Amino acid sequence: MAIDTGILTNVALFASFSIVYAVLAIGFNLQWGYTGLFNAGIAGFFLIGAYTAAIITTPPDPPTVLGGVVIVPGHWGGLSWPFVVGASFAMIFSGLAAALIAIPTLRLRADYLAIATLAFAEIIRRVTINFDTFTGGTNGITRIPRLITYEPPDPFAGGMVLLGVGALVLLAVFLLLHFTLESPWGRVLRAIREDEVATMALGKNTLLSKIQAFALGGAIMGLAGALFIETKSYLDPQDFAPALATFPIWVMVIVGGAANNRGVIIGAFLIYGMEYVSVLLKDYVASNAIYYVRLMIIGALLIILIIYRPQGLLPERRRVLK
Amino acid sequence: MAILEVQAVEKSFGGIRAVDRCSLSVEPQSITGLIGPNGAGKSTLFNLIAGLYRPDGGEIWFADRRIDGLPPYAIVQLGLTKTWQIPHELKKLTVLENLVLAAKGHHGDHFVNLFLHPFLVREDEKRLRKQAQSILALTQLEALAHDEAASLSGGQKKLLELARALMTDPAIVLLDEPVAGVNPTLASGLMDLIEQLRKQGRTFFLIEHDMNVVMKRCDTVIVMHQGRKIAEGPPETVRKDPVVIDSYLGG
Fold first, then answer.
1. Cα distance from B72 to chain A (closest Cα, Å)?
2. For chain A, what is the largest distance between any 2 Cα atoms, rounded to a whole number of angstroms?
3. Which of A202, A209, A322 would best serve as a mutation to test chain B binding (most B beta carbons within 10 A)?
4. Which residues of B225-245 are buried (b: 16+ CB within 10 A; e: fewer)?
5. Fewest CB atoms less than 10 Å from the CB: which of A86, B180, B231, B240?
């Protein structure tokens, strides 16, 4: 029996994108849903992870020079190292960046933290666009190696490998966070979210816990970045605009249920699923209005949810300690 | 030898001197009351002692260690815990979670221990849940152990404040109006518990406006006015002090 591999490949790619955003959303949920730290610079940590992984895993890409003029800038790195190495460094660099941002800003009140992280992400994106000898600038980074190279290229097999690896990464992150958040350490984070001063006055080093939570969240966002490049044929700095990689993540967490990672995964598939549906429908509608209709639906959904179900689809559960 | 010693401590907010070169000391195993009119600087002094504010001048000594300038968590770990006038319950955590969270020296509070010492973490959690249950029994909150702290009544939140403070195993507890807004039966039960705990070796330093409680339960009363100590002594002496009557008690 013949299977329509075209549709399955498409679905696998859609699911892989959703997984990337689910990992991002889980990272943000750790920071905001559990610890109460509102990160408005998700895209920045995502970008650092994606570019770190790309620079480590791609083959060398020297600048193309024509008549003494640089036509295509190429990019640094080009180490051709395996994905696992790229993903590890992506986590380390994004985690370190988050810790460095956290140390000065986590002493500030929540709204200042949001402003500082928003600015950070925008600076990182501008630097990426303009520092083109390092990052390829607006040309992005091409020739990203696939997890497994098929010769001749086999989109169906490639899609399945991507989906399988993505699912494993998501599961691993989910289990790691379940273990750490349902522990006494996670309880301290939830206490900080409820009332930081009271938590401090009960003998907890809240600044240290906040830095740890923020850095771990950043590292998870970096991992999402490493996974992201595997879903792309080339890396484009515009993918890290706040409207694409920060704001939708907030919506996923709010819709799914803050401080509930299962809900957040559902939220990610739901919100990204709308994008997928709008792409499918685009072929049947004579204009690209569908894209804006999608944004309107998401906006309306968000407002309805905040009024009638502010805790999200799956609310945070009460912990009964035996 | 005093367990707590405040020496010429100052704190200003803008142009207002909330605490003005205030000096006082608290004897170990005592119940010491701190009274004074609203705005006298009592709560500010408590926040200074607990490390929540940094003094502009002066020194604070606790059990022969200088504690001013230490972060609040370090002061709690040394054995000095403060409760809040307006309860600061951790709303979405259960009552039992509020207590276990407050426990002193839980290995699981530290991220790396989750991976390096998983057995120690589990042992601590088991032991501290048991301890929390017994403190809940002592404060008559055991039936509410698994309720969200947000759902407690005002009086129950006051009990939770004390129960949680006890989980930090303090040598001295600073109670900011422990029985304000609590019905008389519950209030007297709470004060009985405090006396019982004092006999077991703990020290209590409390702000209270209910003169019946202060006169009946405190060994020593310190009176603050305009950021300074204006009187100190046994309740019956302080009650007759003309300066205190003039500034606080009234005729």
1. 6
2. 75
3. A202
4. bbbbbbbbeebeebeebeebe
5. B240
Q: How far is CA A310 from CA A113, A187, A256, B89, in A?
A: 23, 22, 10, 22
What ipTM did this prediction achieve? 0.94
Q: What is the β-pairing status of strands B80-82 and B172-176? A: parallel
Closest CA to B78 of B68, B91, B88, B87: B68
The residue assigned the tokens 């002193």 is B104
Contact in structure between B7 and B60 (CB atoms under 8 Å): yes
Least confident of A7-11, A31-35, A268-272: A7-11
Using alpha carbons, select from A54, A58, A41, A140 the residue that is nearest to residue A97.
A41
Please say whether the dihedral angle defined by the alpha carbons of residues B66, B160, B110 and A207, taken in this order, is positive or negative.
negative
- What phi and psi, each to the nearest 5 degrees, are found at residue B176? -95, 100
User: Mind giving me the DSSP string for A76-139?
Assistant: S------HHHHHHHHHHHHHHHHHHHHHHHTTS-HHHHHHHHHHHHHHHHHHHHH-HHHH-GGG
**Residue A8, number of CB atoms within 10 A of its CB:** 15
pLDDT at residue B181, as a whole number: 83
What does the DSSP 8-state code read for residue B51?
T
Distance CA B75, CA A121 (A): 37
Taking an 8 Å cut-off on Cβ atoms, the answer to whether B91 and A194 are in contact is yes
Q: How would you label A117-144 residue by residue, b for 16+ Cβ within 10 Å and e otherwise?
A: bbebbbebbeebbeebebbbbebbbbeb
Q: How many CB atoms lie within 10 A of CB B27?
A: 15
Distance from CA of A315 to the nearest CA of B (A): 12
Identify the closest residue of chain A to B84 by CA–CA distance.
A198
| Average pLDDT value for chain A | 91
Question: For chain B (length 251 residues), average pLDDT per consecutive 10?
Answer: 95 94 96 94 97 96 96 97 96 97 96 97 97 95 96 94 96 95 89 95 96 93 95 92 85 60
Beta strand B16-26 with B80-82 is: unpaired
Compute φ and ψ for B10, nearest 5 degrees: -125, 145
The amino acid occupying position B215 is M
Buried b (16+ CB within 10 A) or exposed e, A249-286: bbbbbbbbbbbbbebbbbbbbbbbebbbebeeeeeeee
What count of residues does chain B have? 251
Q: What is the pLDDT of residue B197?
A: 96
Cis before residue A63, ω within 30 degrees of 0? no
Cα dihedral A181→A187→A191→A197 (10° resolution): -110
Question: Alpha-carbon distance B82 to B97, whole Å?
Answer: 19
CB-nearest partner of A188 from B94, B101, B146: B101
Question: What's the pTM value of the predicted model, to 2 decimals?
Answer: 0.93
Six token digits for residue A235: 């890396």
Structure tokens at A73: 């800038």
Count of CA atoms in the C-beta half-sphere (13 A) of A301? 18
Helix (H) or strand (E) holding B21: strand B16-26
CA distance B168 to chain A (A): 7
